[in-house]
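chain below, 171 aa
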Amino acid sequence: MKKQQFFSFGIIALLMMGELSASNLRIFNLVNTNPGSVNPILQFNLAWDNCWRTSSAPNNYDGVWIFVKYQAVPKGTPSCQSYLEWHHAKMLNTVSDFSITGGSIPLNYSFVSDSMGIFIYPSIDTAGNTDTVSVQIRVKLPVPSGLYDNKYNFKVFGIEMVYIPTGAFQL
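prediction:
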């Protein structure tokens, strides 16, 4: 009986929460601008809803963690179809190998020391949806050789994140 009351209370609490906002993160139009070259340049579009940043207390903001997976393509495979395993691609962490263009909300970025991804986040106080921006990154990969075609399959993934400054907090 107590389990049923607890479950009923949980359902009622969820229904009374009101509006919940999701990011509706969109990554689309991925293009390898120099296939068959060392360190391919990838270009894609990025947008998300409910983007926010506040520079007054609590000084936090949301952003997107972007990372890339790649897959070698066996020679003679039609339409780049591959059954091979996907691997994590490292990014080149230099300003000249990265860009964000477009959009009405200026976005900033932070490289990470292991080169496994990049953070993209609003650079000004804002609340609302981002416009579609064009992102360009360079991944650190050799040209495939041997049993493989001279190009890769790529997938770009994103996870919405929140920056919370270190310091005292209360629950």
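The chain has one helix and eleven strands. Residues 2-15 form the longest helix (14 residues).
thats it, cya
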